[in-house]
Amino acid sequence: MIDFESKFGKCPMYYTMSAVEGKWKWIILWEIYKAEVIRYNKLREELQPIAHKTLSKQLKELETSKLIHREQYNEVPPKVEYSLTNEGKTLIPILELMYQWGEKHIPKKE
């Protein structure tokens, strides 16, 4: 019996989906894209009601996937900023298309 990873491990669609899977990653990328550079607390504020633990985990995964850059300044209090990497910027056309699709198809409240 063939397992999922053996069958789809080299599939470009599977790779893309695994890099940006989850409820928050697309929204995090969108917020960083809109801001260009954003500090952690501002990002968390924009993403309410996201939990600190969830945001931290998603940011680490996006950084591991090389889609965002984390810049830490050794100050008191600590200052951390996030921006899209060049690889992350290649997702901008997809982000914009997703936004446009949502604008057209979001259910209207009556």
From TrEMBL:
Keyword Transcription regulation among record annotations: yes
Gene Ontology molecular function: any one: DNA binding
SUPFAM superfamilies (alphabetical): Winged helix' DNA-binding domain (SSF46785)
Keywords, ordered alphabetically: DNA-binding, Transcription, Transcription regulation
A Pfam match: HxlR
Residues covered by the HTH hxlR-type domain: 11-110
Superkingdom in the source lineage: Bacteria
Keyword check for Transport: no
Name under which the protein is recorded: Putative regulatory protein MalR
